[in-house]
């Protein structure tokens, strides 16, 4: 599938995977709608090809604003061929220490926001009998790992929603639905992750720093989207193994994650800082 002249809408397009995807789509001749909160950063991404980029900033959890945002996106070229729900936030805290409001925020940003935007855009795609919906979930959407209880919950939920709407619209209306499962990709995801009290963590993790280059990840995602793959794993090493174990030998996977949880619990009981160096997935 060629993306030339296709209209691609990407949320969370100001940095990380979203920015890399925007750059890759522009290079393939697509017209790209760039959404996020940081207007200056979105303008920077758009500067590579301003004639083929629309900067459409909005707060992903501002649900009353979504009808107007969707109309503006659709009106730009008279259609949206693909929506990539990429905006999100991660977590770095044990459940024992995490405030309830942090869980609410993770659910709103990582689950409710992509659901709400998709719900507003979906009827337009159904009317055209054409379109492609995608969401960036995570390996953590399939594998429960320590320090990410709320994040895992939200990413599991978003997979369930998109799997269900695929069942409703793929054969009936010709709309593709793709779930993207990144593991450790070298971005600022860990720096921006929520701590137990909801503050930004402010530092990265070794696995993220040593993770897949973001442009390589974007290339793999584009290849999967071009083939209209229903599930697109972007994982290497132990993360790829974990996805396979989740299906082939879940008991072994549970034992491995429990060992890591025990190590972190021991650090907590000793009053030391938590070392996430063995943790995998974003």
TrEMBL record:
GO cellular component entries: membrane
GO molecular-function terms, A-Z: oxidoreductase activity
Domain of life of the organism encoding this protein: Bacteria
Keyword terms, alphabetized: Oxidoreductase
Domain Ketoreductase: 6-188
Signal sequence coordinates: none
Transmembrane regions: none
Coiled coil regions in record: none
Family: Belongs to the short-chain dehydrogenases/reductases (SDR) family.
Protein name: Oxidoreductase
